[in-house]
Amino acid sequence: MIKILFVCSSNVNRSRTAEDIYANRQGLEVKSAGILPHARTPVTEELLNWADVILVMHKVHLQTIEQKFADCLDGCTMDCLHVSSVFEYMHPRLIEKITEKVDAWLVKHQVING
Fold first, then answer.
1. 73-95, pLDDT tens digit by residue?
2. Contact, 43 vs 33, CB < 8 A?
């Protein structure tokens, strides 16, 4: 079982959509959070320690986590999906983009077969 934390800014659209897409995927346990203080679920040290993999939607999310939580990232894989914030929660195009990028990441890192 691989634990993935999806991260965006407010945990309203992108990371929440990713969590809901992958919530029932066999072999994965997923959660989502946001880097902003007012996020629906803010990123915490506890969430970062829980995760095996942190997949962020934009490079600024990666940079923010590295700056604020550098002490608790040992042994954790982090990567950026480069998913724009132009779509609302569960928008079909957002689902398509997230699925394409996450599935490619999972295959590349041999989490699932291609």
1. 888 899 999 999 999 999 999 99
2. yes
Q: Please give the C-alpha separations between residue 57 and each of 1, 42, 87, 98, in angstroms, as whole numbers.
A: 22, 15, 12, 9
In a domain? residue 102:
yes
Q: Quick check: is 90 in a domain?
A: yes
pLDDT tens readout for residues 35-75 = 999 999 999 999 999 999 999 999 999 999 999 998 888 88
Helix (H) / strand (E) element for 7: namely: strand 2-8
pTM, entire model: 0.96
Of 17, 19, 60, 53, give the one whose Cα is nearest residue 36. 60
What's the domain count of the chain? 1
Instruction: Return the SS3 of 16.
Output: helix
